[in-house]
Lipid/polyisoprenoid-binding YceI-like domain-containing protein
Amino acid sequence: MLSNTASHYGTITKLFHWTIAFGIFLVIPLGIYGNNLAHAIEANGADAQTVARAAFVFSLHKTIGLTILFTALARIAWAISQPKPEALNGDKKAEHWLASMIHWLLYGSLVLVPVTGWIHHSATSGFAPIWWPFGQDLPFVPKSDSTAHLFEGLHVVFERVLVASLVLHIAGALKHHVIDKDATLRRMWFGTTAVGPRPQQHSAKTAILGALAVWVIALGIGQSLGLYRSDTGQTTAALESVASDWTVQSGQIGIAVTQFGSQTNGSFSDWTSAITFDETAKTGSVTTTINIASLSIGSVTSQALGAEYFDAATHPTAIYEGQISHIEADQYASTGTLTLKGQSIPVEFTFDLTIVDGLAKMSGTTRLDRTDFGIGAADEGTLGFGVDVSLNLTAAR
Ligand code: HEM
Ligand code: HEM
């Protein structure tokens, strides 16, 4: 009774079939609902409540999705070890072939859909963690925008193939039950079912080729719709270069925040620094201007730039003006004021500086409280108050 026979599905096959069906009927609406929330956030800006709800919905979606994946892998292993009950309409060549092709599509989807979702998730940082304990990241997946967009597109394409297959699959099951009045649906349900005589079976071996063709066509449609491309984002006017005793050759301004308990890193790609520094007196000054819209932070860049957070539209730049003083050896401090989102707050940071052959290398960090600048909600539920800012640069005289 646990195993399949030539005429019946065993209990284990049935349990697998209906638990996964149940999971699929949960995970699809969650994905669609979460996606709608995400679009609403992009269109109307992020209020903390909607962001928290979207994150909850996506975490649930991803966690159930991965549960389905691992259950499906066990199910596939089980199905391979089992005889397949003969089709009750095995004599109707086209119908039997179509039903088999859809079974291939369903089995394949149970792997392709969650795996592409998981890769998409691993390629981005921040937002809606998976609640399973086995970590957020897949070892072979780089954190990259293009990988994220590619797999986001693939997830949607494979998910659409799954939905279409499922509609046909359910329609087929109902046709057997209502029109053909045979035992196809009843024998997939629990308990013993009399199936009656089984007809001569046509082979449906080529049905797997049909399934492959469906995926190839769907991937082609996804390509023609541009679903795998990363959008280049808003382009903003770059900052004009500034006159400085020291010219910055390379460097990075990074920020690290804690979102839903895990660290998310971002950086500004466009900023300028005007630096004076007297090597004998070991004093100087620095004015750094940051183009806020050049921020990139995982999958939440557009939310971060919205009105509730950085509000890049109203406050396009942040400016730090500081005086440099020597502490000891290679250690220096800069004491000054950071003006960000219309608020000016005293900010001090310590940094290491070495100058060799007219080339200065500095690196420093400081910790800010985002609420000092009116950034984000005044609770730490989704986003921690502390923001670690790091600055590394190489400058030549
Ligand atoms: C209301 C929902 C569903 C109904 C009524 C339904 C019904 C059935 C029935 C009657 C069969 C037996 C077909 C036969 O005897 O040839 C079957 C098999 C199958 N179903 Fe479903 N199903 C549902 C949902 C799903 C879902 C969500 C999936 C997976 C995504 C799925 C995947 C499969 C697969 C792969 C088989 C072939 C099993 C095998 O031959 O080992 N089904 N389903
Ligand atoms: C069987 C498992 C899964 C199914 C059936 C499924 C299905 C869906 C559906 C229907 C959507 C909405 C797409 C839209 O409205 O255009 C969606 C979106 C999404 N899913 Fe899944 N999913 C599954 C597993 C996963 C897993 C395991 C992850 C990540 C670990 C994941 C991550 C996502 C993400 C991030 C989105 C939003 C995509 C976007 O921004 O366009 N999914 N999924």
Observations:
- Residues 13, 17, 20-21, 24, 79, 84, 87, 99, 103, 106-107, 110, 166, 169-170, 173, 184-185, 188 surround protoporphyrin IX containing FE (ligand 1) (CB under 6 Å).
- The domain at 11-224 is CATH 1.20.950 (Fumarate Reductase Cytochrome B subunit).
- The two ends are 82 Å apart (CA to CA).
